[in-house]
Write a structure and sequence with these properties.
It is built from one helix and 32 strands. The protein is mostly beta strands. It has a domain at 42-204: Thrombin, subunit H (Beta Barrel), CATH 2.40.10.480. The strands form eight sheets. A five-stranded mixed β-sheet has the order 1-26-25-24-23, with no helix packed on it. Strands 7-8-9-10-11 form a five-stranded antiparallel β-sheet, with no helix packed on it. It has a four-stranded antiparallel β-sheet with strand order 2-32-31-30, with no helix packed on it. A hairpin with a 2-residue loop joins strand 16 (215-221) and strand 17 (224-231). The termini are far apart. This is Pyrroloquinoline-quinone binding quinoprotein. It comes from Kribbella jiaozuonensis.
C-alpha cells in the first residue's frame, strides 16, 4: 500500500532531499527542431493564453477575447492555420432547447484585476467541446454550458445552470472522460468565493449526473475529478469518481485557493496545501497517496512515462546538475539528472513523448547559461533538447505541435527530430 508522506517546507537546511535518490537518469532523448507553421493575432492577454488554447489531435481550439461576455471560438488546422469552423463574438449561437445565447469565457487575463484567477478548462470530452454561455450581456443574466461538436462547431446540447438573472457565472472547470464539471459562482480569486456549486454533466447529452453545493471543480483526468469542498475547517481537496461524485480521497489539510492545485494529469494530482507547507500527491483511480521526501512540491507531466519533476528553489539548484530529479509514475523511485545547466532552474509544465516541456529560469548561482532562459524541452536527464524561446508563454504541446503565445499573437510550431 502506498503511504502519503507529509512534506514540510520548513525543513532544516541541509536535510536530505529525496532520501534514497541513488539512481541517475541515463537515457538522453534526441534533439528537436522547431519550425514555425503559422501565427494568428489574438486579443487575449498573454497571461491568459495557457487557459485558452488546446491541441486536439491535429486541431487547435482557441478561445479569444478580452471580456467576460465576449469571446470568439475558433478551431484551426495545426498544419496551416486554416479555419475548420468559428463562432464569432458579434453573433449569438442558436442552441437546442435554449434558443439564442452568447458564448463567454472567464479566467486569468480576462478581468482587470490580476487577482481574479479562476482557471477555466478548455478541453474536449470525446468530440464534445463544452463552452460557457450567458443569455445576454447584462451584469445580471442566466448562464450555463453548451456542448459543441469539435469537428464542425455545431451545438449539440445546452444546459442552463443559472435560470434566473444573477451576477454569478457558469464556468467549465474540469473535463474527465465523458463528464464535464460546471462551477457556478461569482468571480473569485486568489482565495475562494463565499459560495459555489458544481454540477457534473454527461458530455454526450448534457444531462445532469450529480451536483455539490460548496464545491468547486479544479481538474479532471480519466474517470476522476479533483474538487475543493467547503468545510468548517476550510476548503478541503477531494478526488471523486467523475460519473457518480463519490469521493475516493479527501485531504487532511485545507487549501487556500485554486492556485494551490499544481497539476493533474496521467491519473495523478499534485496539491500544495496549508500555505504550501504540505504537498499531497494522489493517484486518482485508487485514491492512494505517494510516499516521497522533499521540501518542495514537484511538477507533474504526462510524458512517456509520466513523471514528477523537482528542480526549483534554492535548495535544489544549489545542488548543481543533480538537483534535477524525476520520479516515474505510478511506482518509480527518485532518479537524479546529470545535465541541468548551472545557474538555471527548470519549471516543468507539460510532457509529450520522452520530453518534458517547461521554462528555464535564471538563479543567483551563476550567469553562465542565462542565454538558455525561456521555454524549452529537456529530457529526463535535464539535458536541453530544443532551442530556447525567450519571452513566450507555453500554451500547449503534443509530440507533433507546440503552441506558444506572446502579447498579440498565438504561434504554432512543428516539432521534428533535429
Amino acid at each position: 500500500m502506498v503511504v502519503r508522506r507529509r512534506v514540510l517546507l520548513g525543513a532544516v537546511v541541509g536535510a536530505p532531499l529525496l532520501v534514497g535518490c541513488g539512481k541517475t537518469a541515463r537515457d538522453v532523448a534526441p534533439e528537436l527542431k522547431l519550425e514555425t507553421a503559422w501565427r494568428v493575432p489574438v486579443r487575449t492577454r498573454v497571461e491568459g493564453l495557457p487557459g485558452r488554447v488546446r491541441l486536439v489531435g491535429d486541431l487547435v481550439v482557441l478561445f479569444d477575447g478580452t471580456g467576460v461576455e465576449k469571446v470568439r471560438v475558433a478551431c484551426l488546422k495545426a498544419a496551416d492555420g486554416s479555419q475548420v469552423w468559428g463562432i464569432d463574438d458579434t453573433k449569438q449561437l442558436s442552441v437546442p432547447g435554449l434558443g439564442d445565447v452568447w458564448l463567454c469565457v472567464v479566467g486569468r487575463g480576462v478581468y482587470e484585476s490580476p487577482d481574479v484567477i479562476q482557471e477555466p478548462t478548455v478541453g474536449c470530452a470525446g468530440d464534445i467541446l463544452p463552452i460557457s454561455f450567458v443569455a445576454d450581456r447584462n451584469a445580471r443574466t442566466s448562464s450555463g454550458i453548451v456542448g459543441v461538436d469539435v469537428r464542425d462547431g455545431r451545438p449539440v446540447w445546452g444546459f442552463r445552470a443559472v435560470a434566473d438573472a444573477s451576477a454569478e457565472r457558469t464556468m467549465v472547470t474540469a473535463v474527465a472522460g465523458c463528464v464535464v464539471l460546471a462551477t457556478v459562482s461569482a468571480p473569485y480569486g486568489p482565495q475562494w468565493p463565499d459560495r459555489a456549486t458544481t454540477i457534473a454533466l454527461d458530455a454526450r447529452t448534457g444531462r445532469e449526473l450529480w451536483r455539490g453545493a460548496g464545491v468547486i471543480g479544479l481538474a479532471g483526468d480519466g474517470e476522476s475529478v479533483v474538487v475543493a469542498r467547503k468545510t468548517d475547517g476550510g476548503w478541503r481537496p477531494e478526488v471523486r469518481d467523475a460519473q457518480t461524485g463519490t469521493p475516493r480521497w479527501t485531504g487532511e489539510h485545507s487549501i487556500d485557493g485554486p492556485y494551490q492545485h499544481v497539476a493533474t494529469v496521467a491519473d495523478h494530482t499534485v496539491l500544495s496545501t496549508k500555505d504550501r507547507r504540505v504537498t499531497d500527491i494522489v493517484r486518482l483511480s485508487t485514491g492512494d497517496q505517494l510516499d516521497f521526501e522533499a521540501d518542495a512540491p514537484p511538477g507533474l507531466v504526462g510524458s512517456e512515462p509520466p513523471m514528477l519533476v523537482w528542480d526549483s528553489g534554492v535548495a535544489w539548484w544549489a545542488k548543481g546538475p543533480n538537483g534535477f530529479v524525476t520520479q516515474t509514475l505510478p511506482k518509480g523511485s527518485p532518479t537524479k539528472g546529470k545535465k541541468r545547466p548551472k545557474g538555471l532552474e527548470f519549471h516543468a509544465l507539460h510532457g509529450a513523448g520522452p520530453y518534458i516541456w517547461g521554462t528555464y529560469k535564471t538563479t543567483q548561482e551563476s550567469t553562465e547559461h542565462d542565454d538558455l532562459a525561456g521555454t524549452i524541452a529537456v529530457d529526463r536527464t535535464g539535458q536541453p533538447r530544443s532551442a530556447t524561446q525567450p519571452g513566450v508563454v507555453l500554451a500547449d504541446v503534443s509530440e507533433k505541435w507546440l503552441v506558444v503565445g506572446k502579447n498579440g499573437y498565438v504561434e504554432v510550431q512543428r516539432i521534428k527530430p533535429s
